[in-house]
Amino acid sequence: MKTYLQFLWRCFRLSFVGDRRYYAWMFVLTAFVLTGVWAYCRQVMQGLCTTGMTDQVSWGFYIANFTFLVGMAAAAVMLVIPVYIFKNRELHHLVIFGELFAVAAIIMAMLFVTVDLGRPDRFHHLLMKFNFPTSMLTWDVLVLNGYLLLNLHICGYLVYCAYRKRQPGKVFYIPFVFVAIVWAISIHTVTAFLYSGLGGRPFWNSAVVAPRFLASAFSAGPAFLILTLTVLNRFTSYPVAPKAFMTLRVVVAIALSINMFLLGSEAFTEFYTDSAHGASAHYLFLGLNGRSALVPWIWGAVALNMIALVLLYLPVSRNLRVLQAACVMLIVGIWIEKGMGMIVPAFVPTPLGEIVEYLPTLNETLVTLGIWAGGLLVYTILVRVTVPVLEGRLTYDQSFAAATEAGGSANLHGPEGA
């Protein structure tokens, strides 16, 4: 236990060490976090009237980001599957970054749910009245927290074993890895069921919602990991095999193809049948009764996804810069399509036929930026600590431990003294 606490202390100290670019990045993120905290305090004092949500559109920017981030967290499994099931050696040393990203994404997702609550001080009522197993919201709470604990255990155990320079015991992490694979699929499936099970919102009442959620997640998540690995490749000495980028490129291309096919299938059903339940789809893609706030956004998202898909299938995407551009486009496109394009139209028009459009307020946007900055701050710190450990530059040192126990000081090694 003493050694483990020393490990945590050294990691904490290391998170404050870096070059000017690292300090600038952390300063910007911290500034956004503090601004978000201020905006959320204002929201707590004045209520949800500080947001753009109304009686007609009760879910907005917060739940849109929650939906997107749950998928990003689930996408960590796309690195785990080829590594532990298909024995892909190129990705073996990179799977930890997918797990770390899952931790940061789940933290952000749960924060978005928290800020969406009108009375966060009454959150304990949810725990007191779980309504298990009939409530899909209860299932969502269980799978999200369970997935967070699973990834914390896997990441923490593997990094600590690398710190101690010892081989991880398979019995302590392999079973949890396979459980996490199933759990990752379940967290986004349960989130999809949370929407499609609401009979009063016909826009969500489709069996395609869950597969669409998974397909979009398994394209956006690995795309974000590609961007992470390019940063590691450029700014650290951590080895990233070029073949790893190409493997992830194939995963992203296949998943994005499936997502676009499912989106097209759903659009065909809505528009070809021309049923009364297609009003929300008409509002989203074509506008309704002169209201068309989301039309340019959704068509922009479709265009970005199509351009990214074409680039991924062309040999030119083997160039790292082109691959990065395609990843950025599809992440933005899926965020729009799966966030605002999925959540808001279900409320427009209302069951009574009212058309009330939704637009996020400045306060709502600041809270959202604060949460995203907080998640990126957590992910940056986790990666900053993990890379030196995996490279063998931050390891358990008997002399450091002896000096610490004696109350003295020891010279910091490797990146801590850099």
Describe the structure in brief.
By secondary structure, this protein is mainly α. It is about 70% helix and about 0% strand.
What does this structure look like?
There is one protein chain. The two termini are 28 Å apart. The protein has 15 helices and no strands. The chain is an all-alpha fold and 418 residues long. The chain has a single domain, classed as Formate dehydrogenase/DMSO reductase fold (Up-down Bundle).
Gross CATH architecture: Up-down Bundle
How far apart the termini lie comes to 28 Å
Can you tell me the residue ranges where pLDDT is under 50 for at least 5 consecutive residues? 408-418
How many strand units? 0
Q: What is the CATH class designation? A: Mainly Alpha
Q: Estimate the strand proportion.
A: under 5%
Gyration radius, in Å = 23 Å
Helix and strand composition category = mainly alpha
* Secondary-structure element series: HHHHHHHHHHHHHHH
Instruction: Tell me the major beta sheet.
Output: none
Bulk shape: globular
Count of alpha and pi helical runs? 15
Domain module count: 1
The proportion of residues forming helix, as a percent range, comes to 55-70%
- Here the CATH topology equals Formate dehydrogenase/DMSO reductase fold
Average per-residue pLDDT, rounded, comes to 85
What is the strand and helix layout of this fold?
Blueprint: H1 2-14, H2 20-46, H3 61-74, H4 77-84, H5 95-116, H6 124-128, H7 136-163, H8 170-196, H9 209-235, H10 242-273, H11 279-285, H12 295-313, H13 320-343, H14 362-391, H15 398-405
